[in-house]
Structures are given as C-alpha cells and as structure tokens.
TrEMBL record:
The keyword Metal-binding does not apply. Its cofactor is pyridoxal 5'-phosphate. This is Threonine synthase. The lineage of its organism: Bacteria, Bacillati, Actinomycetota, Actinomycetes, Frankiales. It comes from Frankia nepalensis. The modification N6-(pyridoxal phosphate)lysine is found at residue 61. Its EC number is 4.2.3.1. The keyword Amino-acid biosynthesis applies.
C-alpha cells in the first residue's frame, strides 16, 4: 500500500502535462465517496456524497489548480490572476504560494464568505474587490491577462477542467461503473463540464457507462435554466452567484448528451439541504454545495428520479468556509456555572 500522490501523479497519462513538467501539488484529490443513509432512505435510491471539501484548501478547485499552476510554472509564468466567488481565489493563492508565484484575485465586494477571504489573505495573495458581480470580475481578469504578463487560472484556462475531470475517475474507480445520476451545483459551469468529460473518457476506455448529469443553479442566479444572462444575480449561495457562466454551452451539451437536466433550487431549499447534510449525514458543507442535494430532493419529489438508482451528489466545498450560515440557523451556546451540577442541570440529566 502506498499513499495518495495527488491527482497529477495518480492520473498523469490522462492529463496534458509532459513527463518533465514541474508538479505543484498539495496532494489534492482522493476524496471520500461517502454513502448517505438518510438521503438514500428519503429517495429510495443508493446515494453517495463525493466530499470535495476534504481537498487541501477545502474545495474541488484544488484539482484544477494543481494542473493550472504546474503548467504556469512550466511555461515560465511569474504571476497568476483569477476572478472568484471565493474558492478559486483560495486555491490559487495556496498553490501560487507553494510555487513562489505572485497571485492576484478579483472578487465581488462583500459577496465572498469570510473563510475564503481569510485563505486568500493568509497565503499572501493581492485581494482586489470590485463593486460588481463575479461576471464583472471575470471580464476584467480575462482582459488583464490578454494585455499584461499574467496567467489566468479561471476555468477558461483549459488545464483547470482537465484537472477537475479526475473526480469522475475516482468515482468510477470506487463504484466500478458510472452512477445512474450525478448531481452537482452549477455556477460558472466548469465542474459539470469537467465531470462529463471524465465520465466520457473512462467509458471510452473501459466501458463503464455514463450517468445522467443533473445540474442545479440557485434560483436567483439561474441563467442556464432561464435561457438568458442574469445581470444582477442574487442568492445566499455566494459561490454560485453567477449570471453569465463561462462554460454555459458545455453545460448544456453535458445535460443534453447525458439525458440529464439543469434546474433551479431556491435559497430555502438550499438551506434545508445544508442543514440535513450537517444534522443527519454528519457532513458539513458550504451552502452552495448543498444545491446538489437540494436538487436531488426536489427532482425526486417531482417524480424525476426513479427508485433504486445509484446517485452521486458532489458536495463541492467545506462548511467551515462560511461559518455565518452554520451559526445563524442553529441553537445558541448556553452558559453554565463551572460545575458538574451546572452542566447536568443544563442538560436536564437525572442521577442514574
Ligand atoms: N460549489 C462551490 C463551493 C464553488 O465554489 C463553485 C464555484 C461551484 C460550486 C460551481 O462550480 O463554477 O464550476 O460551475 N466557484 C467559483 C469560484 C466560481 O470562484 O470559486 P462551477
């Protein structure tokens, strides 16, 4: 038995990096595929959670970032830039720090979770906030990278999606065949594109089949569902607060080629799934991540998920990134006297 080596060494033959390319890794990937007993019971399906919050910076972005930063170093780049709702910037900052690159991140002012901001800052990135949406940030970052000597590490950088497709490989290795349905949140639409690519590649080589791709946007930020750009996207799920996804057409292709769907879930459904995951599955995710599970429950409710199917829901980011939502919906801490009697009384315990 040997330890996990990170996604580049584990899947090198399937990634567009030469044999001598430098590897910048935090040993990302190899994340748990956790059976979800309560969700299985609620849906009559065999449900698993792909827990991407277990990655080094707490989200799936690390899979793409290890490849994008390694390629940037190999190409002699000195500086990287990205637009972000928070997780891409946290990941870029960490991998850039490790590689000794300068990193700048562009985020929508006041709209990224506290933990993600802490991550970008602690890793030494330049954090630029602008008064606008993620979509405005991405436009500025793209044009900047076209004009100045900085490498763009958003998912429009092809190395990003190549790295992210490895999550599908891991699921296929764990289950042996593709699930019937794969649910995931959709923001800039890179991840649904990457998973679909990963499932197709493996199926081409090993005949493992392909799932139906079920993507879920937040109702106030659902351009693909509505069929038009959303100029002022709104949702508590800040990670997917995006009105004009870069990989829009790829997501539509994944949906249509797989016989899947892309639907909207509202903030109330997202928060209900967020709490269910924490309280009944023991899995603490950030609100945006719960969109996959909210979507599974909603489509099951609508009769679109036949019982007995095998379903994987990707939960994309760690709950610790956005602690405000955990605290606001929960019971308050109770202050007690510093005695056994004080604790027993607060807990309503009787002597045995
Ligand atoms: N879940 C989380 C936690 C995310 O951070 C993101 C995207 C998504 C889902 C959606 O993935 O964009 O590939 O469709 N976050 C990006 C960022 C936009 O800047 O961190 P997608």
């Amino acid at each position: 038995h040997r330890g996990w080596r990170g996604i580049i060494e584990e899947y090198r033959d399937r990634l567009p990096l030469g044999p001598d390319a430098p590897v910048v890794t935090l040993l990302e990937g190899g994340t748990p595929l956790v059976p979800a007993a309560r969700l299985s019971e609620l849906t009559g399906c065999d449900v698993y959670l792909k827990v991407e919050g277990a990655n080094p910076t707490g989200s799936f972005k690390d899979r793409g970032m290890t490849v994008a930063i390694s390629a940037a170093v190999g190409e002699g780049s000195r500086a990287v830039i990205c637009a972000s709702t928070g997780n891409t910037s946290a990941s870029a900052a960490a991998y850039a720090a490790r590689a000794g690159l300068v990193c700048a991140v562009l985020v929508p002012s006041g709209k990224i979770a506290l933990g993600k901001m802490a991550q970008a800052l602690v890793h030494g990135a330049r954090l630029l906030q602008l008064d606008g949406s993620f979509d405005d940030c991405l436009r500025v970052a793209r044009e900047l990278a076209d004009t100045y000597p900085v490498t763009l590490v958003n998912s429009v950088n092809p190395y990003r999606l190549e790295g992210q497709k490895t999550a599908a490989f891991e699921i296929l290795e764990a289950l042996g065949v593709a699930p019937d349905i794969h649910c995931l949140p959709v923001g800039n639409a890179g991840n649904i594109t990457a998973y679909w690519r990963g499932y197709n590649e493996w199926d081409g080589d090993f005949g493992t089949g392909r799932p139906r791709m079920f993507g879920f946007q937040a109702a106030g930020a659902a351009p693909i569902v509505r069929g038009g750009v959303v100029t002022a996207p709104q949702t508590i799920a800040t990670a997917i607060r995006i009105g004009n996804p870069a990989s829009w057409q790829f997501a539509v292709d994944a949906r249509d080629e797989s016989g899947g769907l892309i639907e909207a879930v509202n903030d109330r459904q997202i928060l209900a799934a967020y709490r269910l995951l924490a309280r009944e599955e023991g899995v603490f995710v950030e609100p945006s991540s719960a969109a996959s599970v909210a979507g599974l429950l909603a489509t099951h409710e609508a009769g679109k998920v036949a019982p007995g199917q095998r379903v994987v829901c990707t939960v994309t980011g760690n709950g610790l990134k956005d602690p405000d939502w955990a605290i606001s919906g929960a019971a308050k801490p109770e202050t007690i006297r510093p005695t056994v009697a004080g604790a027993a009384e607060a807990l309503g315990l009787r002597r045995s």
